[in-house]
Write a structure and sequence with these properties.
Layout: E1 22-29, E2 32-39, E3 41-49, H1 53-64, E4 72-79, H2 85-91, H3 93-98, E5 102-108, H4 116-125, E6 129-134, E7 140-141, H5 145-154, E8 159-168, H6 174-182, H7 187-190, E9 206-208, H8 209-215, H9 227-237, E10 241-253, H10 265-279, E11 287-290, H11 294-302, H12 305-308, E12 311-316, H13 319-324, E13 326-328, E14 339-344, E15 352-354, H14 364-371, E16 380-382
Parallel strand pairs: 3-4, 3-6, 4-5, 8-10, 11-12, 11-15, 12-14, 15-16
Antiparallel strand pairs: 1-2, 6-9, 7-10, 13-14
Helix pairs in contact: 1-2
Amino acid sequence: MSSKDSESQDRRSEVDMNPPKRLRIETLIGGEKQEAERSAVDVSIIMPVHNASCWLGECLQGILHQDFTGSMELSVFDDASTDDSREVVQGWRDRLEARGFSVVISGHNSAQPRGVGYAKNKAVSQSCGQYLCFQDADDIMLPQRVRLQYDASLLRQNSLIGCQVRRVPEGSTERYTRWINTLTQDQLITQAYTSHGPTVVMPTWFCSRKWYLKVGPFDEGGKGVPEDLLFFYRSLRQGGSLFRVDECLLVYRYHEKAATHSVTEETIWKLRVDFLQERVLSQWESFTIWNAGKQGRKLYRCLSPTNQTKVRAFCDVDENKIQKGFYTYEESKQRPKPKIPVVHYKDASGPFIICVKLDMTGGVLEENLNSLQLKEGADYYHFN
């Protein structure tokens, strides 16, 4: 067991991340160490908290109303909140326990929060569920969420399980929400390189503890680190699969204080390029970048020298770009500097990396791809 933080009166030590059927959990009660034995449960709801007091009532109400008939636990880790978040959760303990939940609440009172990844890992480490249901403190799970995702996980032990969502306020992030809810099961894999991030979005994740232990833990770099995308890519590298329950099981809240806003576009871009090169481009002898504009050229510049040599052309629909005939990579140290042809998409040869934003061309991009009878995941991948 790890040593306790004397500042906290409701602190539990870290326990074995792969719990036996029964766990011995140490707590501090009245300043004295107490030890209790807890049985493993079917599902632990993993909830990191940081200054979420204004949303916790709705969030905990959603948890309380789950229709799952197995055993459940709520594991909360408070990441140095300066509001009354921990007290709000404590105020719900009796109602949750009366409903049959085990409740574990801990946290730290450091001057600075240590980040979402850290808080998630701590909430998992103090929990004992065979399955983990990740819940953000500002979102609301609908009554059937745990039941339906648990059923899906039983059949998919090495998977991240997601669901469809309803975004609030209504109309916020409209394109992103449509993307979350309408990807096909195949596209959960093929569109893993797009700028939207994980195709199974983190606030909807549900998985076996066994799979979390194989993939995890979350990166604890703190603010600005996309711990969800890093875990998502690591899961795929480990051979994990993805699945979405095609029912709306979560109300997914949009607000300016969300942790995702602290992650820079350049950080996400680099991770995506590296993953694309590793998983796709390493398997191709040559390819065409679909977009001779800013985004296509940026992708080319970010490729490894080996993969740059595989780019046979850029293709586009813009006659002005096509008439120039080629793109010169001015920053190259090669002499002469590389010149990559720019051609019309109908004259280009696949496979393609598509650097045109989805759902932004009024269906023209999709029509052009269909006209060439290309198959996503074989003949092309989306990168934007």
